[in-house]
Specification:
Length: about 425
C-alpha cells in the first residue's frame, strides 16, 4: 500500500513484450534486462509478460498468474517455441508479431524490446516505450555475415517500417548514446521523447568476493577441467551468433600462443557447431571449454574467477554482461563497438584497435599478463552507477508519477515503496 492511501487503489499495469520464456535457461541481454525489470518491480505495479511457451507443456493463449524470481507476474504465452536461443527459417520475431496481431494487450504501460511487434500495436491505448538495445546504424552497415540480422539485406525496408510506426511511442530509450543521437536526428518531431538510459546489472547476483575465495574457486574449476592450477581464464558469455563473433575470439586465442590461458565460452546458439569445428581445426581443444547456457548465478562465479571478460562483437549497445563482469571486479577487453569503449577507463580494460585476431590477442595479452594494472576496485567502482536497484527504481518512480498525474486522485502517495 502506498503511503497516504486510505483504501486499496487500482494499481498501474505494466505489460512487457518479448519472444522468450522466463522459466527457460535463456541467453541474451534483453532477456536479462526484462528479468531485472520484473525482479525489481515495486508492489505498486501489476507486471505482465507476453512471451512464449513450451510446446506440449502449457496451454497457449491464456493468462496465468505465477511466481518468477520472487515476484508474482501475469504470464501470457502467445506462441509455442521450443528453444528461443536458436533461430529458425522463419524469424521468431515475425512469428511473435503474427501471434500478437490476434490480441489487444493495451495497458497503462507497455514495454517493447523489438520494433517489429509494434507494427500491430498502433491502435492500442496506453503509454508505449521502445527500448533500443543496439546501435542500429552500425548494425546495418557492418560488413560480413548478413545472416547476423535479416534486415541488413533490406535496410531501406527496415527504416521505412520504422518511420511508419515510430510515432506511436511515448518514449524511445537507448542504452547507446550514438543510437539516441541518431534517432533524434532522424525524427526531430519526436526528439523530446528520445533519451539515453543506463543499462543495469543485478547487484544481488553480480558482486565481488574476497581474493582467497576467488583463488579457491579458480583452483576448483581448473581441477574439474583437468587444468593446471595456475591456469588463467578468459571468459566469453553470450549468444553464439554472428553479432557476437565468437569465431573471431577463438582465432585470437590461437594467435596469442599462451598455453597457460584457457577460454571459457558460456552460451549457445546457431554458431555452436561451426565454433566446435573451428576449435578443432585450430587444434585448440585443450584451451577452450564450451559450457553451454548457464544461469546468472553460475555466470557470476565465472566472472569472479576470470582474469578478463572479452567482447568480440561486431555491434552492440551497452551489453549487460560487460557491467556484470565489472561489478564482479573483472576487467574487460572489447572491440570498438557500442557504448563499452566509452565507459572503460585505462585501469578497467582495453579497447582493441581493430576487430582482428591479432588486435584482440594483443588486448587479451595486455590484461591477462599484467592484472596489477587493472585492480578489482577500479572495475567495481565503474559498475556501481549501473546497479539495477537504483536504475530500475528511478524508471518505475517516473512511470508511477506519470500514471498518478493521469489518475488524478488527491489521496495517492507520491512515491513508490
Amino acid at each position: 500500500m502506498l503511503p497516504g492511501c486510505m483504501y486499496e487503489m487500482k494499481k498501474p499495469t505494466l505489460t512487457i513484450f518479448y519472444q522468450y520464456n522466463p522459466w527457460n535457461k535463456t541467453i541474451g541481454g534483453i532477456q536479462t534486462l526484462i528479468n531485472i525489470f520484473i525482479k525489481y518491480a515495486p508492489q505498486e505495479f501489476v507486471v505482465r509478460l507476453v512471451g512464449t511457451g513450451n510446446p506440449n507443456q502449457e496451454k497457449m493463449g491464456t493468462w496465468r498468474t505465477d511466481q518468477f524470481i520472487g515476484r508474482e507476474i501475469e504470464f501470457f504465452p502467445v506462441l509455442a517455441l521450443k528453444d528461443d536461443n536458436v533461430r529458425t527459417l522463419i524469424p521468431t520475431t515475425i512469428k511473435y508479431t503474427m501471434a500478437l496481431a490476434k490480441h489487444n494487450f493495451a495497458s497503462d504501460f507497455m514495454h517493447f524490446h523489438r520494433l517489429e511487434p509494434t507494427f500491430v500495436t498502433r491502435q492500442w491505448q496506453g503509454e508505449k516505450t521502445l527500448f533500443i538495445h543496439n546501435d542500429i546504424q552500425t548494425q546495418m552497415q557492418t560488413v560480413g555475415n548478413k545472416k547476423a540480422i535479416l534486415w541488413r539485406r533490406f535496410p531501406a525496408a527496415y527504416f521505412a517500417l520504422e518511420k511508419s510506426i515510430v510515432g506511436q511511442f511515448n518514449q524511445i530509450l537507448s542504452c547507446n548514446t550514438d543510437a539516441a543521437a541518431m534517432y533524434r536526428q532522424r525524427y526531430p518531431q519526436i526528439a523530446d521523447r528520445i533519451a539515453y538510459i543506463k543499462n543495469s546489472f543485478d547487484n544481488e547476483i553480480f558482486y565481488p568476493i574476497g581474493e582467497g575465495k576467488v583463488e579457491e574457486e579458480k583452483y576448483h574449476l581448473a581441477e574439474q577441467l583437468g587444468l593446471d592450477k595456475q591456469t588463467r581464464f578468459i571468459l566469453f558469455a553470450g549468444r553464439l551468433h554472428p553479432q557476437k563473433d565468437p569465431l573471431l575470439l577463438v582465432r585470437a586465442l590461437a594467435v596469442m600462443e599462451e598455453p597457460s590461458v584457457h577460454l571459457l565460452i558460456a552460451g549457445d546458439g546457431e554458431l555452436a557447431s561451426p565454433l566446435k569445428a573451428e576449435i578443432s581445426q585450430l587444434g585448440m581443444e585443450k584451451q577452450v571449454t564450451m559450457l553451454g547456457a548457464v544461469t546468472s548465478e553460475e555466470l557470476a562465479k565465472l566472472h569472479r574467477i576470470s582474469h578478463t571478460f572479452v567482447l568480440s562483437s561486431a555491434y552492440e549497445g551497452l551489453p549487460l554482461v560487460v557491467l556484470e563482469a565489472l561489478a564482479c571486479g573483472t576487467p574487460v577487453v572489447t572491440t570498438k563497438c557500442g557504448e563499452t569503449p566509452k565507459i572503460l577507463t585505462a585501469d578497467t580494460g582495453v579497447v582493441c584497435s581493430e576487430g582482428t585476431p591479432q588486435a584482440i590477442a594483443d588486448g587479451l595479452r595486455q590484461v591477462v599478463l599484467h592484472p596489477e594494472n587493472y585492480p578489482q576496485e577500479s572495475c567495481i567502482r565503474l559498475a556501481q552507477p549501473y546497479a539495477a536497484r537504483t536504475v530500475v527504481k528511478d524508471v518505475y518512480q517516473n512511470m508511477f508519477t506519470r500514471w498518478q498525474q493521469n489518475y488524478q486522485s488527491p489521496i495517492l502517495g507520491s512515491k513508490i515503496s
